[in-house]
Amino acid sequence: MELTSAVARRRMTRNFTGRPPAPGVIDGLLDAARKAPSAGFTQGVDLVVLEGPEETVRFWEATTDKAWRQRSSRYPGLVRAPVVVLIFCDPAAYVARYAEPDKVPAPGEPAVEWVVPFWFVDAAFCTMSLLLLAVDAGLGAAFLGNFRGEEPLRKALGVPENRRWLGAVLLGEAAAPDPPSGSLRRGRRPFAEAVHRGRW
What we know:
200 residues, NADH Oxidase, 4-stranded antiparallel sheet, 4 strands, 38% helix
C-alpha cells in the first residue's frame, strides 16, 4: 500500500472481532514501528505487548473501573481487541544521551531544557508508525491515551519505575458495525487555514 493511502485510510477502530492476527504479523509490525525516528538515536521507547484475553484484561483492569466499563457503549467492542501494545518511554535515557560529548552544548551555549520532551516525541513517532503499519497489514487499530492507571499498570506488568507510559495501541481485525467517532462532525480544518506560508 502507498503511504499516502495508508494515511488517508487510517482511522481509530473501536469494534474488534477478537480474532487473533496470523502468527508473525504483530512481531513484524512491532519490529518496523520501533525503527521510527529517535532523537540522538537514543531508542528510549519500550513496547509491552499483551496478547489474548488472559493478558489484555490486565490493561483494562488497571486503566478503567467497573462504573466506566458498565456505562461505556464502546467498551464491549474495544475489549475484544486481541492485542494491546503499551508504549513506554525512558526520560533518563534521553537526559544521559544528551549529556554525551557529541550532544553536550558548546561552551557558552545554554544547557538542554527539554521544552519539548524528546522521549514523548519519540514514543509518539513509534505510535503513529504502528497505527499506519496496522492499516498496511489490513488490521484495525486504535490509540488510547494515558488518562488514568499508569501506576497500577506499571505494577501489574512489572514496568520499571523510571518509565513513563504514553498510551496503548489496540490491534486486531475490525468488526462491523464500527461507527465513526462523533468528533468527526467537527469537520477537518481547511488546508488554507492550517498551513501558513512564509509567516502566520
